[in-house]
Amino acid sequence: MESLQTTSIASDQEPSMKHCKRGGWTTFSFIIGAVMGLTLAAGAWTSNLIIFLGMIMLTLASTIHSLRPPTCVTGSFSCEAPSKLQYAVLYSALALASIGLGGTRFTIASFGADQFTKPDEQETFFSWYFFTLYLASTISLTAIIYVQDSVSWGLGFGLGVAANAIGLAVFLLGKRFYCHTKPKGSPFVSIAHVLAAAFQKRGKLERFQSQGYFHGDNTEATSGPTESFRFLNCAALRFEDDRKSDGSYSSSWWLCTVEEVEDLKTLSKIMPLWSSGILLSTTIAMINSLTVLQALTMDRHLGPHFKIPAGSFLVFSILATALSIFIIDRFLLPLWKKLTRRSLKPLQQIGIGHVINMFAMVGSASVETRRLRVVRNLHLDGEPPDSVVSMSGLWLVVPMLFIGVGEGFHFPGQVALYYQEFPKSLKSTSTAMISLLIGIGYYLSTAITDLVRRSTGWLPNNINDGRLNYVFWLLTVIAFVNFGYFLLCASLFKCQNTDNHENEASD
């Protein structure tokens, strides 16, 4: 999409940066799709249909002349701006695709893990699921982008429509073999339920005598909630006005079960650790977008006849992630277990990913420093934004590889951690928390980009006239501080579901 924004929608780098960042709002549509995907079996094919509609709209937007602005001529300083209708169609298509993606990409990972009972088997599934996911992304960033650049955007998106149709058909063919978990309703409604009941009953214990705690259909449970977050406990207390006319109690907006209260407490304990992934996603979002802008100004030729599309440089990161996941799962994790007789914990994997991500920031800053040195030596500052620097774009591969290897550690680690630690009622959407990280990361990257542009001269319209290397050094500092925050949260967090892992490791 960065290349489409630059070559087909916006003429200079500044609008491209803004629009590809604004495109991050569609990632928040993931969470909408995640709610839809709670039913999983029914929601997955519905979500695929929504993706299908989004891809059709993108295909139409790139082929029908009235839905796209005239193509900008290379080197032109004035291009016709897109109309409101054209923007509306583009962002509607992206929103539909994102909503559908939220109902499949992340919640389908939980659905697949539900087919297994052993934690090690579930983690292996996560690894292979994301290996396949990144491998598919590699194909889209190479073959599909090549078709879009060499033939037409319409054909490229049309291939996406065909791939989506095939995937939906394959999924439905195996429907009768799946192990389904019974939906318990939306977990977000359950969270709001507990908060509303706790707020409504605040101080009520001092004025009225309670009838004990409410356990719902679990008649064997007798214990009350834990002492942590005690202000939530009153949500599960039964009072006389909670009693129905027949003398029984039932769950309502003002009466929750002890299980619902404990589920919210569990979620509250993991949220600080989850929040440490926000800045991690932010730095990755920024380095991906800025790398495309760097590539547009560098020599991207491989031999005399082939030129790497700027957007395809991200494929090195994705390919590195896929290979890293394979190597980690097949070699590093078994070796670690053999040497230590313990499984590598998800928190440890996430921590390793944080460290490697910092090396990626340093690598990007170093490459940009070298690129700007060439710009100054050739006196290209002040030239048109599309001026090509006589420096190979392959230098960008190094930080992209670091980004990919880091994701190979922290991305599956985050998914495994949330699936392992989330309460059962929220397990189906545990992996969808990654989508929220991505959405917030894009929004925050927009805020950081705008702040840098307003307060410094590091990011002008033409990056050859700026100090993009300073931006990368700023991201390095942010990544370092965030890693310290992660270590603090990890040291305070106590994993509750580690028994199975320890037992399997000892076996």
UniProtKB/TrEMBL annotation:
It comes from the Eukaryota. The chain crosses the membrane at residues 23-42, 49-67, 87-113, 125-147, 153-174, 273-296, 308-328, 349-367, 387-411, 432-452, 472-493. GO terms for cellular component: membrane. The keyword Phosphoprotein does not apply. GO terms for molecular function: transmembrane transporter activity. Pfam families: PTR2. Signal peptide: none annotated. It is found in: Membrane. It is a multi-pass membrane protein. Keywords: Membrane, Transmembrane, Transmembrane helix. Belongs to the major facilitator superfamily. Proton-dependent oligopeptide transporter (POT/PTR) (TC 2.A.17) family. This is Uncharacterized protein. It comes from Salix dunnii.
